[in-house]
Amino acid sequence: MPHVIALETRSGVPFYRQIIDQVLIAISTGDLRAGARLPTVRRLAIDLQVNPNTVARAYRELEIRGVVQTQRGNGTFVADKPNVARDQALHEARLLTYCDAIVAEAGRMGIPLRELAAALQDRLNDRR
User: What is this structure's pTM?
Assistant: First the structure.
């Protein structure tokens, strides 16, 4: 897998969710194409130093969404068929990843979330 998954331990986002988001982003950017094989659950769990159940949960969620297909004995692959729900999921993953980064950075800077939300709302009102 050309896209390297990196977990942010201080973001507050569950690891399985970060894996899902990063796989969706890799697909949307073309780093993962239809038919591409994902690392095995065991391999990715070792690489990320997480419980294999965490990776399995992420892969199951991706399969439920129609983003990946698991072939018993062969591995997990990016689905071949386009899926409108998948496009929406990709958009949502990019947005959530961006929000997570903003929240994490605000936390590092000591900015309370309520203050961040108020500032974003002010910016939105200024643009109208």
Answer: 0.67
